[in-house]
Amino acid sequence: MGDYFERFQISFNIAEWEWLEELLENENRGDIMQLLYKGKIEEFKKEIFSFCTEKQNLNNIAEKLKQEPLCATRIVIIEDAFWAHLQNKYTLSIPALLPQIEGIIWDLGTELKFVDGQNIKSRQKGTVQECGSIGHVVTELKDQELDPIIKEHIVEDIIPQLRIPILHGRDIEYPTKENSTKVILFLYALYYSIKKNRQQKNTWVIPKPAA
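^ thats the sequence. predicted structure below, dont judge the formating
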């Protein structure tokens, strides 16, 4: 299985780490990002793994996710997965979170009205792909709807290296702190991308319920 953090190091420039920088700054842990910027990758990984084993930090992430409607509907499952992570039960945390990442993408397509159940309508061609896959949904998402780097990692990392081998029972060596941490951080990166694009493109923001 490829090293997710090494891939991040290659394909993400500093500006594209904005999601993690915000998360760490909010928890007064900007020092962790400095390790990354200085090229101290092993020290960075050690600190970020430690950060994700602190209950308060995961609670704060969960509170942020509750602010995004596409994540809020899944928060009970996500919080249970965070609990499992804190208990070192990676056999549970990883397979619980991976479908939530995929489900958020499907729900985003539904919100944008090109997904109807399992059918995916091509917004460019007007054709309908019946019983489409998550890959088809990602392809239809525009860059202003989901960050292209996030889309790239879904297609090239999350689906082939984690979701398919783990959820199809082909990889039974997946339960590690590193893999669980990767999935938690990717979930947050996905949330951050959706939140940021909602703020920039208010034409598709879900209205808040009246008080």
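The longest strand covers residues 119-121.
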